Queue: 2 jobs
Job 1
Amino acid sequence: MLLPKFDYNAPATLDESCQMMASYGDRAKLLAGGTDLLIALKKKTLTPTQVVALDRIDEIKGFCSDQDGLFLGSRTTAAEIAESDLGPAGRVLSQAAAQVGSPLIRNLATIGGNLATAMPAADMAPPLLALQASVVLQRVGDQREVLLSDFFISPGEQVMLPEEIMSMIVLPRLPEGCGGAFEKLGVRKALERSIVSVAAVISMADDGHTIQGARIALGAVAPTPMLALDAAAGLSGKKATAKNFAAAGKIAAQEANPRGLRTSAVYSRLMVEQLTIRALTRAYEATKL
Amino acid sequence: MPKKQFDVLNTRAPRVDAAIKATGKAQYADDLNRSGQLYGAILQSPVAHALIKNIDTSRAERLPGVKAVITAKDVGLTKYGVSPARYDETLFAHDKVRYIGDEIAAVAAVDLDTAQAALDLIKVEYEELPIVLTADEALAEDAPQLHDDYPGNISAEVHQEFGDTAAAFKECDFIHTHKLVNKRQDGGFIEPHACIAEYDHANRLTLHTSTQVSHYVQRTVAMMTGIPIGRVRIVRPCVGGGFGPKCEATPLELSACFLAIKTGCPVKIVYSREQVFLHSRARHQFYHEMTTGFKKDGTIMALAHKCTLDGGAYSSFGIATVYYAGSLLGAPYRLPNMKYDGIRVYTNKPACGAQRGHGGVAARACFEQQLDIIAEELKIDPIELRNMNMMETGDTTCNALNMSSLGMKESLEAVKKGSNWKKKKGKLPAGKGIGAACGFFVSGAGYPIYRSDTFHSTAEIKVAEDGGTIILRSGIAEIGQGANTMVAMIAAEALGIPLADVRVDSGDTDYSVDLGAYSSRQTLMSGHATKDAAENIKAQILAVVADKFGMEVKNLDIKKGFIKVKGRKKLDFAKFREYYHKEHRGWSGMPEGDELSFTEAARLAFLEKGTIVGTGKYKPPILGGKFKGAAVGTSPAYGGSAQVVEVTVDRETGKITVDAMTDAHDCGLAINKTMVEGQMQGSLSMGLGEALFEEVKFDEKGKLLTSSIGEYRLATALDMPNIDTIVIESNEPNGPFGAKEVGEGAIMPTIPAILNAVYDATGVRITELPLTPERVLLALKKGAEAGKTA
């Protein structure tokens, strides 16, 4: 399969790339790691006349943190996230990043691309949803911050305008005593699209046993990555026990909306239940670290 | 029995192609380019079953840069395929298409972009027909028919009975029936098919192609193009794996040839990964049903076996496949009565063919589970049950296959010990299981694919005129498995020279006849031909030496590159050495010491007789019984294997993890131990993938869903446990230096060992592959409802 013809643009700054996107509009596609875009180009499911590569733009690479939270450049690779110590909150994200594709893919694939392609099974979406992340969308002379929970629309579709570029992912600082965990079920141990993935983040009260708050996010069981809000709400103020986690698993399974494409909906729900229990159990363990 | 000592064989010599492959210098078909070459592309049907009403290529022909467009009108309607008894394909569909991917036309253009653009300009009018996608649909009474010549969608049918199964069942204490269905598999080799064809003004056609079988490609190309076979030359560059699907002439190769003939320019065509899946010719889907009868002491009495193969749109290897699916159960256990009813049906999908363990893999997976089921029933350890019924060296099966060597008991014992079976079987914690299975396979098919008394392998060795090295020319297929290294080692051993002094040039039909890399034949057959050629060279050189120095040939030998003399008489070669030194005045590395070197002896032979060339040949003796289909399964020798697999089953998700694999394989003499282990490891990986992950899928219109190796799941390195590979070396009387197969037999026990281990872990038998988490969990739930779960 050959690539179709297109113009290749390699702007050096975010400003320059925003200018380009403003003038090209929906004739252009952004190229970050290319692990999805190049396949789509070869299959001709996308046919942009312009490709705007982001790899020269240093200001959207890497991460930093301050008292407000953690800021990840959109062009940070899955490998960098997997291998970095992002603090107690970021650990669940690192776990998910470590399960993206294979080492070759992780070296190229970016966190921004993983979100912007808006795939229901995107590995990094559930932990970011559970961490209450938002994304910063940049365009000429303007920027907006969108909560990730408001970002996805449908498979392959999100709220970005053609002239926008995702510059950053923002993770608010989590209270002390938080822990998170990511669970992914695939057929193989690598190069897998999740059958189901679950990320859980919980924060504990000072007594160390009572759950103050929880967030549970599910991948691959709805048209978009989603939060299991009822399952999480049900845990608030409860003790961190196997029984309560099991109850949360059941609720999460009901909240899931699997379409029964690659596995039956019945199985997907069962796995949401199991993986939610496992993720909560491990998240609780993590709070004690 | 004390083992013979070898100088070159039975070592871990590095592969002769290690350096070029490690440094990226190895050239594969797509690396080859010729000046003025054109690029080919093939138009394939977008519908699974339709009549072709019209093909209009005029717009494509007018596209600038297009040099030729060919259809059935240009290439004719000669039928071809694998077995001459079932030639059921034309190169291009002319009246109807039978699967999504069926070839209709090919284009050659100045570049690939133009060639592909031209495909879009070819207008084909279809009248769509109803389709059949499953074996059941194909066999239904009023099913749409694929081929006029093969009514009922039946591609091939086998009905055999050995002994008297009905009578034997009456004597049985236990009879059990078991079913298994696998899924269509893909070879999953790294290198997609690629080729470049060149045609010159002397009516000579040269095709460089990624193939396992240069010889059969040569025959098919000659037959299809009408060019005399002596003017058709097939050259195989480095090949990135084949596993069976590269065992026949492809539409890619034939299109390139016809386009090269029409344009007079070299034409290159390369399959995309999707086209590899569409060409397929890989593992069939098999529906097995087996009824096995036992005495209460554990003796196997009889097997009644029914099998349906979903073959896809054409026959390919299918006749052999349907026979193999039955005949390969004749061993390694004593089975006095066996009945087999096999049927291969046409469906509107890509054609299936041969893949590693041809025809026998799913059958073995079904049968070896039966042994465990009966062992449990009789409260006999499953390894013990196998041992009790195991054949021994010299035994002949009910379907007339002779086990001229059989290290099966040794293999079973080795995996039992190696896996610590006794400590584990029945004693593992919940969710963990251990399972065993055996298998065996041919060391080369007893007969060629077409009826002929041809030699199966010939080889030619030329001694370099300077005397220092030999050049081994052979038609063998080095496809990554190490065939070049194997023949180099055999030549070095047989001639008595260091491995480094052997150069192998192979895969060219100009060099020799060799049927190629299929049915695990090359070590035994090409090995024999090579040994024969090397011995011929040795005899020629020693004759000259004997003559020159007044010795008797029987007192001379060559070892480690030197002429050895038996008896008291010394070889008085001082004068010749002086001559040799003078001939090479100023050179370094001149022979010294008190032995005549092979280099000097070979130089002497050249000076006396001119260029020294020796040839070798091999064909098996007449093998097998006289019944219909008796040829399929015959072989001069059989490799055997045993395996123990340990698994963990996650009972909440259904996910299976293979924790350990202990594999023993009887390959006769291991020519190269590292390469034997490599074949064992590769076989286990392919078997594990088929057991747990792999499935070629289609939608309801027959469109391929798994068109990439992202969607089609091969086992990754992380899915493979560490493997303990134990090489068992029986002495095969029919093999060169006692060697036989390892390339395919090693896959046989993997799937049933996994299935038996899963049963051990869960108490549930799963009868459909692959063992995806969902399928396993549903089976566990069903088992729990039936109160069966362990």
Note: Chain B touches chain A at residues 112-113, 116, 272, 274, 652-653, 655, 692-693, 710, 713, 715-719, 772-774, 777-778 (CB under 8 Å).
Job 2
Amino acid sequence: MPQATSLSVPHLLGIKDLTREDIELIFDTAATFKEVINRPIKKVPSLRDLTVANLFFEDSTRTRISFELAEKRLSADVVNFSASSSSVKKGETLLDTVNNILSMKVDMIVMRHPAPGAPHFLSNRIKANIINAGDGTHEHPTQALLDAYSMREHFGDLEGKKVAIFGDILHSRVALSNIFCLKKLGAAVKVCGPPTLLPKYIASLGVEVEHDVEKTLQWCDVANILRIQLERQDIRYFPSLREYALYFGINKAMLDRLPKPILIMHPGPINRGVEITSDVADSEHSIILQQVENGVAVRMAVLYLLAGAR
Amino acid sequence: MDHERIILSRERFALTIERMCHQLIEQFDRFDDTCIIGIQPRGTFFSDRLHARLLQLLDVPRIPYGKLDITFYRDDFRLHNKPLVPSANQMDFLVENKNVVLVDDVLYSGRTVQAALAALNDYGRPRVVELAVLVDRRFNRHLPIQADFTGITVDALDHAYVKVEWAHTDGEDRILLFADKKDRDK
């Protein structure tokens, strides 16, 4: 079968727009970049003629460093921008900000924005390739890709694998992108959390809904445990963190009761002792740090594939 | 007129590889401090053969052997409509102070070799790099790069195409010359 050699999209706005072939092409390319970043000299000259702007209108540590490393390891020129220290504070619109940056000859934009759909809005109005690094509660495609890549690295293939996503599904762009990605790769997905943190129509995405953590753990091969987004809890979705930890936190005793070991994942940052205890996060079945390592390789693959088709 | 002709038959193909192995031994003796690096993807078919035969001829347990993927180092990366697909890179040693035999199947414009030399830089500073190619299309160079070991020299026009076929992928070891690039897939 002739394999796809380029993505079907000019931007990475969300997993929803990708085909299964796109995702597999990204994974195959990421595998070669993973080899590159484990070399003594971790840098290749592929994107040396490109300039990438990282526009972060919302805070980030991991994603931003990961993108910046990915860009630098491909030899792109990188400019960073964060909303907190920019003219956005003076009332400049998103389109004006981006157009000003583009007129300084920037070729690609990596953007995180609190408004869902912000990168889609830009993609209709500017020429640069856009990579969505998280738009509000909508999508976080590179996180889903690196999660699925990490699972695939472990299992070989995700067809028929059972993945449970725990926690705050309502506010989570990671959950939504993960659901799209895993379904496209043939995995079965179950979401588990308190009813207040599960969107009402989530089942229409083809996922099962469960509120019992132990039952879900029994079912799954992989537990992807999401962060309780303390910054988005202005309405009380649950009575207290202690109560959440008691009913929805995952601890070592629960895992010890399971018939088989399951893979533990977390996109970070971890609230230790809330959604996951330290002994689970640091256990031998946890691949949390491998996820971070794979993040750089997957982002290099996305940048490379989008740049190569420019 | 035929669209293609065989320029190296199976028998002469085997003799050519045998001869090149002996030339390499003449130059590098027992391959102390010498490594073989094949360029991915198709250069490694040739380097696999050279490496295996050299091990037999020299009766040594090991010759350092790597497969170098040069996709990310190519100067034409952004000139294609589609991204170039990388191959696996298998380099588990550094070339610092070593003699390197760089191996490819066809030397044409010289750009692949240029990219390979750039890629090789990331693995240290070799003492010397020599180039072994199965086919040298000597009148089609874009860069001042020449082979040190050559299987067969082909003088062909730019629109001709040289195809190296291998027993394990195409059924037989042989080299074909197509008068026109467009005929190669027929």
Note: Strands of chain B lie at 4-8, 34-39, 65-68, 99-107, 128-137, 149-154, 161-165, 174-178.
